[in-house]
Amino acid sequence: MVKRFFNYFKPYKRLFLIDFGCAVLVALLEMAFPVLVRQVINKVLPVGSLRQIFLIGLALVLLYLVTTGLHYIVVALGHRLGINIETDMRRQLFAKIQKQSYSYFDKVKTGELMSRLSSDLWDISELSHHGPEEIFIAIMTLVGSFLLMYRVQPTLALMTVVFVPVLAIVIRYYNRKMTVINKGIYQGLAEYTAGLENVLSGMRVVKAFANEDHEKLAFEDLNQQYRSNKIKFYQAMGQSSSFNYMMIKSINLFSLMVGSYFTVRGNLTPGDLVGYILLVNVFVRPIERMNVMIELYPKGIAGFRRFCEVLDQPVDIEDAAGAVCAPHFNGLIEYRDVSFSYDEGASVFEDVSVVIEPGQKVALVGPSGVGKTTLVNLLPRFYEATRGEILIDKHSIKEYTLESLRKQIGIVQQDVFLFNGTLRENVLYGKLDATEREVEEAIKKAKLAEVVKDLPEGLDTVVGQRGVRLSGGQKQRLAIARIFLKNPSILILDEATSALDSKTEQFIQRSFDELAVGRTTLIVAHRLATIKDCDRILVVTEEGITEDGTHQELLAINGMYAELYHAQFGKKEESHQE
Fold first, then answer.
1. Residues 529, 554: contact at Cβ < 8 Å?
2. Selection from 351, 340, 431, 424 nearest residue 382 by Cα
3. Which class for 404: exposed (0-12), middle (13-18), buried (19 or more C-beta within 10 A)?
């Protein structure tokens, strides 16, 4: 763990050495004051030389000016070091999260990931700056000041240093205790952030059901748990801080009383006593700093462990060894004995085999929960098949890099996700380097031009979080514009119109028909009226694909499809149609 932590310092070795070196100089210069005071009292005052007093005073002024400059370097460069390491860690963590598959995000809360990308890394940053530096300087100051104290009065110095092992044992005990408590604090913070993100995202639903009081109670429960863990932490820190304070004052008092005894007995001069007491103050300063470290260290270590947990999480779907960039697809799709289950649980479907010809428009229908969406999500490898193989143009999809595979598959879902930016930025998500002309053409094809014209700032209108300022139909048209811009070889429409009213659905359906021209298209649908003109309709059940044919062919065999169709439209409509 320690070696892994210090690996993040390697790119900033020079910055670390400058910061560390300046901190060491500051610690050494602080020991100069007691030595000079001792010299003034023992040698300068008895002589009565004002010139020497003036020169020593001037030397101290210069000393403090140098120390001030060094302090600035330590604070400024030290924090820059911490920020650089924090930035690198955040970049690495975000890259790892982006590599994870849908399965990972099915299990991990968004708020928990947000917590690890923010508060955890802040505490790691503070530890990166202060941790190694503070520990080394504390040891150096303790040893250096002890040697100077020993030089003044060996017996008294040895008697004073007896307090250090007691302090070390107590500090170690509280460090361990607070590391455990901090783990609970971070877990509580992650749950608190996740709960808060969940409620704020669903605030419209909360208000629609007038459940503000219910959510207030749920929030208060999370809030109190987080509060309780923090109180435990600061109670432990308070105990440690109080004990350290008592020990520091005991060392000061002990040094004063025993030092005075040695002075009365003639073993110490008054100058030696004053110098020794000032050295004791330098000696105990690292112990005082340990109070800060006792708060900082457990937080940083707990944060780093949580950071490593995410970083060490295996990526279940990634490019195979030797994966190549996919060529332009013709759109021949084959599912060959494909089975799927979530985390070795109950199987969603087994041994699905189907071939879809290039340019065909194929619908998947069936009861809810049988895995229609999962089946199409296997194609861009959002999930990995448990068994079997999926091929495009007679090549396994695993032969291609994930990026090149997904670049050629366009997806429009029921719940269109829009980023909190402008209309233009959201359309450009289909092709980030698209020209203005390409954007305008995509908007025109998606029947979005009239919408853009009516908006106050046109394409530069901010759509709001998740596109809250747009209607369902407008969001779907924007999603279609994205796909026109992307221009994929294969198109997936997953319940893309199920949330729209009939009039808007018909309008959007015409755009989908235009979008599907020349592309292999897979449509997951509950509203069967939208898929009657498909080249093929596949009926998906728990047993896999049980029916395959055109609308009329499936009605004729009077199976599951006919049952679903009659449930939606009744037999009279079908008789009339015949």
1. no
2. 340
3. middle
What is the secondary structure of 269-311 as a DSSP string?
A: -HHHHHHHHHHHHHHHHHHHHHHHHHHHHHHHHHHHHHHHHHH
- Contact residues for 358 (Cβ-Cβ < 8 A; gap 6+): 330, 331, 332, 520
Cα(482)–Cα(419) distance, integer angstroms:
13
Fold of 2-311: ABC transporter transmembrane region fold (1.20.1560)
Residue whose C-alpha is closest to residue 490's, from 388, 412, 398: 412
The residues that bridge with 412 in the sheet, in sequence order, are: 493
Q: What are the Cα distances from residue 116, in Å, to 95, 119, 265?
A: 13, 6, 62
- Look at 144 and 211; give whichever has higher pLDDT: 144
Counting beta carbons within 10 angstroms of the beta carbon of residue 453, is it exposed (0 to 12), middle (13 to 18) or buried (19 or more)? exposed
> 524 vs 224, which has greater pLDDT?
524
In the chain, domain spans: 2-311
How many Å apart are CA 476 and CA 482, to the nearest integer? 10
Q: How far is CA 6 from CA 85, 122, 129, 134, 292, in A?
A: 10, 17, 12, 15, 21
Residue closest to 313 by CA, chosen among 97, 91, 117: 97
CA–chain centroid gap for 522, Å, is 34
Q: Terminus-to-terminus CA distance in the chain, angstroms? A: 73
The full DSSP string for 188-199 is HHHHHHHHHHHH
Model pLDDT for residues 266-284, shown as the tens digit of each residue: 888 888 898 889 898 888 8
Q: Are 307 and 118 in contact (CB under 8 A)?
A: no
Q: Which amino acid is at 215?
A: E
d(CA 531, CA 315): 37
Residues 6+ away with beta carbon under 8 Å from 35: 148, 275
Q: What is the 3-state secondary structure (H, E, C) of 359-382?
A: CCEEEEECCCCCCHHHHHHCCCCC
Q: How far apart, in whole angstroms, are the C-alpha atoms of residue 562 and residue 555? A: 5
- Pairing, β 520-524 against β 361-365: parallel
Q: What are the strands, taking DSSP E only, across 105-160?
A: none
Single-letter residue type at 95:
A
How many Å apart are CA 129 and CA 277, to the nearest integer?
A: 31
- Contact call for residues 409 and 379 (beta carbons, < 8 A): yes
* Structural tokens at position 18: 């400058």
Lowest mean pLDDT among 278-287, 313-322, 508-517: 508-517
Contact in structure between 72 and 18 (CB atoms under 8 Å) = no
How is residue 564 written in tokens? 């679903």
Confidence of residue 499 (pLDDT cuts 50, 70, 90): low
CB 274 within 8 A of CB 59: no
Reading the block at residue 355, the tokens are 């071939």
Question: Taking phi first (over 0 means left), then psi (-120 to 50 degrees means alpha), and beta for anything else, what does residue 467 get?
Answer: left
CA atoms within 13 A on the CB side of 354: 23
Separation between Cα atoms, residue 394 and residue 504, nearest integer Å: 38
Distance CA 509, CA 170 (A): 72
Residue 400 DSSP label: B
Specify the pLDDT at position 550: 93
Q: What is the mean pLDDT of residues 65-83?
A: 89
